[in-house]
């Protein structure tokens, strides 16, 4: 089914009602409304946030796409633009913010850092991309991405939303969604979903160290 | 007056003043004096009280692993001007302890905490020695030379896997967790108990018991996700009703390990990383780093390059200040309109940066001994039109709309006052220092590049409140335009680089401290080279990090709604605060 067929209702409108009445599917009008009023969260992490501000300002004018309403509260926003380097110290807060956003919610990884660690990837306090913790819808390359690139990414997100079906999106199913477990700061960042792995590897290392110690002793 | 000038420039001979307590640092390429740690407080106190070294610019540590030593390096200045007096304290690596300088200079507070956090140097007598950039409980001291990060590959770049062999792999594939983490052997996450991260709430001052009102103290966290903290900055305040009793800044949410990465990089590879320190002012960051390394290498850029450098640095200052004013107004509640005006001008300057360097924000434009590309005549023409015509008009426009505005004055005058004595003791710099009545500007106090030839005034204001910090930015923008007008008038033709452009520069062993007057304050780079292609130590003296020391003094007694404006008037950028 191509997009045209998918979105045309297959129903004749009586001639006298043409130009006054349009018939469409619920899904289509719903998605159309959602896609054109995406409210980003006012959430800046690092250098990329400055380009995000520039995108919202007059020369690039985010308002043309219905996105100028930046909300400082996660409860009121639809899209989380992760604009900058995600550090281990910050990631618990980001996951918490994501959990607090009302569904449907989308995430854009803006820039090299948010997508995969970027120039600072090797750093001991840097998370290699926010997608290790929360699902990402659109990745925007660049360091920082130009405002045009950010706009392109937002348009890509709009296109994605317009193609979604209410029937199989997780947030239109029955029952509440599971929140993402918030990472914990220990000797290093700990993802609660990986506790078993952590225990296994550190145990193996301890045994290895012990054996090596014994060998050195002999 | 004429004889006072050389006196200021003179550094007293400490060996004569403090025989047996101080010796000159005789390592080749090093300067300053070594002080025994038991004498440090005494020596520094006398230098401060009798010799006028009232300004502690930078405190940092160096790990000399091969010699088994740790060293703490202090750079002292006089606010009257003149070169640095460098003091060093050496100690064995196993027992890194020094007396804290916080009782003498409050500005040492954050820098000593940072050295404790990253190098594990214990400062005895520090009032609040907690980790500052990493969190309590983090394993290890990352800037020590024998500490390895989870994605460790090799000691120094270029890594063999990239060049010359070129078998690149993903760092994730080599880490047993498939992620950028590591844990001590035998570590069990289930039985692990978090260390005391409530400590911060205990050091906060509360309402005193004797207070007969029996008012409760309310503790409020602002940030790290807060629309007016200019990024991921967190403040913990204790309130009595609406008045602030105490405030503790919490940073590190954007700590990107600049220095650890910088010590693995080659010298030139660090240039693009400096862009990302204060990401609004990449050109001035380049400037400071280039100066430090050029000091070590002993090269000087040609005349045209000097002019181009100053041009870019002053455009950056203009851009930063107009942005800062716009966002200060945002914090005052003028939601986005002034900021939009500011961003419009900023875009015009970014166009110039993009034309010369290829990138709007991350310019990576300076090279050791020059700049990367020449400025073409049309770009120069564009700059000329901006600095003679458009930008002066815009400054006047801002001035006209805002300066006499009733609301701006009500909210800013007399709020967030920092006295001159506090500003000096807190090592504040840049507009924050000058708005408190201290006319200290590195461009005049210790001129670098061609600033000694240019005509401009050091702007100074005397009340130290938010309003003066706003006004001083207007003044400085006007002075920057004055400098720019001279630069575009006088810029000579000629080469833009001394020697051939090189990927791998030769840097002789030694240390250097290069500092510039960045838009936010004194931006210093402390670089130690051991003759290898990578710096042994690379430290950034970040002005907005140290200016935050003054936040408590400004905020105490103010209302909680004002703290947002006070923070805006300090003008921080988190990339530089946390590095
Ligand atoms: S991708 Fe580049 S510009 Fe963006 S946050 Fe990372 S380092 Fe900064």
TrEMBL record, chain A:
Membrane-topology descriptor: Peripheral membrane protein
EC number in record: 7.1.1.-
Keyword 4Fe-4S in record: yes
Top EC class, one word: translocase
Pfam families: Oxidored_q6
Any one of the GO CC terms: respiratory chain complex I
Keywords: 4Fe-4S, Cell membrane, Iron, Iron-sulfur, Membrane, Metal-binding, NAD, Quinone, Translocase, Transmembrane, Transmembrane helix, Transport, Ubiquinone
Coiled coil: none
Listed cofactors: [4Fe-4S] cluster
Function: NDH-1 shuttles electrons from NADH, via FMN and iron-sulfur (Fe-S) centers, to quinones in the respiratory chain. The immediate electron acceptor for the enzyme in this species is believed to be ubiquinone. Couples the redox reaction to proton translocation (for every two electrons transferred, four hydrogen ions are translocated across the cytoplasmic membrane), and thus conserves the redox energy in a proton gradient.
The protein's assembly and partners: NDH-1 is composed of 14 different subunits. Subunits NuoB, C, D, E, F, and G constitute the peripheral sector of the complex.
Protein name: NADH-quinone oxidoreductase subunit B
């Amino acid at each position: 089914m191509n997009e045209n067929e998918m979105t045309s209702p297959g129903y004749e409108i009586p001639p006298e009602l043409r130009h006054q009445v349009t018939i469409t599917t619920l899904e289509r009008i719903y998605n159309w409304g959602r896609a054109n009023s995406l409210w980003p969260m006012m959430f800046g992490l690092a250098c990329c946030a400055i380009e995000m501000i520039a995108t919202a300002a007059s020369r690039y004018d985010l308002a043309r796409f219905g996105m100028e309403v930046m909300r400082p509260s996660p409860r009121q926003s639809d899209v989380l633009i992760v604009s900058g380097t995600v550090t281990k110290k910050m990631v618990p807060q980001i996951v918490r913010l994501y959990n607090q956003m009302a569904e449907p919610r989308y995430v854009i990884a803006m820039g090299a850092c948010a997508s995969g660690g970027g120039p600072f990837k090797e750093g001991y306090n840097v998370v290699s991309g926010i997608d290790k913790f929360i699902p990402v819808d659109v990745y925007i390359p660049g360091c920082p991405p130009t405002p045009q690139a950010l706009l392109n990414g937002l348009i890509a997100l709009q296109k994605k939303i317009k193609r979604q079906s209410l029937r199989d999106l997780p947030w239109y199913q029955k029952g509440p969604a599971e929140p993402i477990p918030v990472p914990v700061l220990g000797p290093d960042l700990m993802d609660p979903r990986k506790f078993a792995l952590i225990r296994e590897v550190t145990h193996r290392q301890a045994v290895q160290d012990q054996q090596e110690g014994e060998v050195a002793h002999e | 007056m004429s004889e006072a000038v050389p006196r200021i420039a003179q550094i007293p001979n400490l060996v004569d003043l403090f025989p047996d307590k101080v010796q000159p640092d005789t390592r080749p390429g090093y300067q300053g004096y070594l002080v025994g740690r038991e004498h440090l407080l005494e020596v520094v106190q006398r230098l401060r009280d009798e010799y006028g070294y009232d300004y502690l610019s930078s405190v940092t540590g160096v790990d000399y692993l091969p010699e088994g030593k740790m060293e703490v390096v202090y750079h002292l200045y006089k606010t009257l001007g003149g070169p640095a007096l460098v003091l060093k304290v050496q100690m064995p690596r196993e027992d890194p302890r020094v007396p804290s300088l916080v009782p003498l200079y409050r500005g040492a507070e954050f820098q000593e905490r940072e050295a404790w956090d990253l190098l594990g140097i214990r400062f005895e007598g520090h009032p609040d020695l907690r980790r500052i950039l990493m969190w309590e409980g983090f394993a290890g001291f990352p800037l020590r030379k024998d500490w390895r990060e989870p994605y460790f590959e090799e000691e120094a770049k270029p890594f063999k896997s990239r060049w010359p062999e070129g078998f690149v792999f993903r760092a994730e594939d080599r880490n047993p967790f498939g992620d950028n983490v590591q844990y001590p052997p035998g570590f069990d996450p289930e039985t692990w108990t978090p260390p005391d991260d409530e400590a911060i709430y205990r050091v906060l001052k509360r309402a005193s018991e004797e207070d007969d009102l029996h008012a409760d103290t309310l503790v409020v966290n602002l940030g790290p996700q807060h629309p007016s903290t200019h990024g991921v900055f967190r403040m913990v305040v204790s309130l009595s009703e609406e008045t602030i009793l105490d405030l503790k800044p919490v940073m590190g949410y954007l700590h990107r390990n600049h220095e650890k990465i910088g010590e693995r990089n080659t010298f030139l590879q660090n240039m693009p990383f400096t862009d990302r320190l204060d990401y609004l002012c990449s050109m001035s960051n380049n400037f400071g780093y280039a100066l430090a390394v050029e000091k070590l290498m002993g090269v000087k850029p040609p005349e045209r390059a000097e002019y181009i450098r100053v041009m870019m640095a002053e455009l950056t200052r203009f851009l930063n200040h107009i942005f800062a004013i716009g966002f200060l107004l945002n914090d005052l509640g003028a939601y986005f309109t002034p900021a939009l005006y500011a961003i419009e001008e900023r875009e015009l300057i970014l166009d110039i940066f993009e034309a010369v360097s290829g990138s709007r924000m991350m310019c990576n434009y300076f090279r050791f001994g020059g700049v990367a590309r020449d400025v073409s005549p049309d770009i120069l023409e564009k700059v000329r039109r901006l600095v003679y015509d458009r930008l002066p008009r815009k400054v006047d426009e801002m001035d006209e709309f805002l300066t006499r505005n009733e609301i701006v004055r009500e909210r800013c005058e007399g709020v967030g006052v920092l006295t001159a004595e506090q500003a000096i003791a807190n090592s504040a710099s840049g507009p924050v220092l000058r708005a408190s009545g201290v006319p200290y500007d590195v461009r005049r106090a210790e001129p670098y590049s061609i600033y000694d030839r240019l005509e401009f005034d050091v702007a100074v204001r005397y009340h130290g409140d938010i309003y003066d910090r706003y006004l001083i930015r207007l003044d400085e923008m006007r002075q920057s335009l004055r400098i720019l007008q001279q630069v575009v008038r006088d810029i000579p033709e000629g080469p833009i680089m001394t020697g051939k452009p090189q990927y791998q520069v030769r840097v002789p062993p030694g240390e250097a401290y290069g500092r510039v007057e960045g838009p936010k304050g004194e931006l210093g780079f402390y670089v130690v080279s051991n003759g290898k292609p990578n710096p042994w130590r690379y430290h950034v003296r970040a002005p907005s990090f140290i200016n935050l020391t003054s936040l408590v003094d400004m905020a105490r007694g103010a209302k909680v709604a004002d703290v947002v404006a006070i923070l805006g008037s300090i003008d921080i950028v988190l990339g530089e605060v946390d590095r």
